[in-house]
Amino acid sequence: MNNPKDNSLDNINPFDPEVLACPYDFNRALRELSSVYLCPHTGVYFVSNYDLVVTVAKDEKRFSNQFSMIQSGVQAAPDPEMAAILAKGWPRVDTMLTADPPKQRRYRSLCQKPFSVSSVAKLQPYISEVANDLIDQIIDAGKCNWMEAFAVPMPVRMIAYILGVPISDMDLFKQWSDANVASFSVGQTREEALRNAELVIEFQHYFADKIEARKIKPTDDVLSDIVNSSADGEKPMDMAECLSVISQLLVAGNETTTSTFAEGMYLLARNPDQLRLVQQQPELIPNMVEEMLRLSTPTTQMWRICLEDTHLAGVDIPKGATMMIKFGSANRDSDQFQQPDDFDVTRENLKSQIAFGQGVHHCLGAPLARQELILGFQNILRRITNIRLPQGEPELAFHPSLLLHGPIDLNIEFDKCE
Ligand code: HEM
Question: Which CATH number does the domain housing residue 401 bear?
């Protein structure tokens, strides 16, 4: 619904860190008052209800993903010191997430194989092994910092394993992942931005050595597959392309899965009846994971650029306009999901949740993320119970990120299963 006379939304800046960290009220107001909303503070068109988000996400001909210039533009003016740091590395290339077909399709096909359902199925024993290894380290204590103990290391160890990074380099790898993700946050100081840029260059040189080695002598691993595969007889990707693909895998894959592990655990601690139900009926765990994905929607919103003059839900959007499609809002639209803010592990229509997006950009890593979450929670719920928040634990607080929504910290207490 669009109500052009109601301008109560105009008092809110959607990029205010407080709104980004806690977007639920704003999203609800958007859906009720103006499902396509031109924000006077930012000049961005926000699309918030379920049907319209799906429409835009599926129409890559009218709505482009080539948004990397906007993404850097909202963050910083050109800075010579930053330019000097970046000159030590390779230029960023628009590959999957930040490209349109046919370019996007080409890059995607080059790295699709290791992320397919059948390839990911082969990782199941390793996923369970990592999950149990992490649980072993906390189970006797009866309490832990859940982010440090599980939510962060689980996805990092999986993507590191897939990319052939040894466990001894895990801390470095996590720092590089955070530095790559930082480009999506607001409120970084200049010093932080420069430090993160240094880390990104460090990451590039680390992987450049590995890529070089695998181009000369391929080994039996995913990195070799990615750097040596070619589409339609074309040359394999060059160094800048390979590095951009790897950095997208890091950004898209790490923080998001961490966020669902963290918010999912919080939801279980806050809803003991649902926890009891999934422990009594573990066959509900895959459905529970979809419900956790729906409520957490870690890729909360994504840029689009309008490629032609468009009329959407009564609003004219001119060619060249910048848009933001709100997956997180769509997943809490009451026209699609009844009692949308409730955590209900038996909810029936979860096939329509869109935490992994829709259309040509639908998440490449969805099979991997789903396997990690399902096997992760299967092992967790088999081994610990009575999961609760420590007394005095504050409400969950979230990072004020432009595109990614995820908890900052979470402590839990629990009992060992008999
Ligand atoms: C809970 C975990 C995850 C969530 C919620 C998530 C969400 C998303 C969403 C919503 C998109 C589409 C963005 C758009 O339409 O513009 C996307 C794309 C993508 N995701 Fe994920 N993701 C997750 C995990 C992963 C993992 C584990 C990987 C890989 C290791 C990954 C790699 C990618 C890539 C490469 C794209 C771009 C695909 C393309 O444009 O063709 N994601 N993801």
Answer: 1.10.630.10
The verdict on the CB of residue 361 being under 6 Å from ligand 1 is: yes
What span, in angstroms and rounded, lies between the C-alpha atoms of 248 and 197?
15
Residue 345 lies in a domain: yes
Atom of ligand 1 nearest to the CA of 360: 41
CB neighbour burial string for 114-140, b if at least 16 within 10 angstroms, e if fewer: bbeeebbeebeeebeebbbebbeebbe
In contact, 270 and 387? CB cutoff 8 Å? no
Query: Is any ligand 1 atom within 6 A of the Cβ of residue 350?
Result: no
Pocket of ligand 1 contains residue 367 by CB under 6 Å: no
Distance of alpha carbon 136 from the chain centroid: 27
How many folded domains does the chain comprise? 1
Q: Does ligand 1 come within 6 angstroms of the Cβ of 298?
A: yes
Backbone φ and ψ for 63, nearest 5 degrees, come out as -125, 110
Does 4 map to a domain?
Answer: no
**How does pLDDT run across 230-272, given as a tens digit for each residue?**
766 778 889 999 999 999 888 888 899 999 999 999 999 999 9
For residue 149, being part of any structural domain is answered with yes
The pLDDT tens digits for 19-52 are 999 999 999 999 999 999 999 999 999 999 999 9
Closest residue by Cα to atom 40, ligand 1, is 97
How far away, in angstroms, is 224 Cα from ligand 1 center?
A: 21
Counting Cβ atoms within 10 Å, is residue 13 exposed (0-12), middle (13-18) or buried (19+)?
Answer: middle
Residue-number span of the structural domain to which 110 is assigned? 12-416
Q: Which of 162, 226, 299, 325 to mutate to test the pocket of ligand 1 (most atoms within 8 A of CB)?
A: 299
Alpha carbon of 356 to ligand 1 centroid (Å): 6
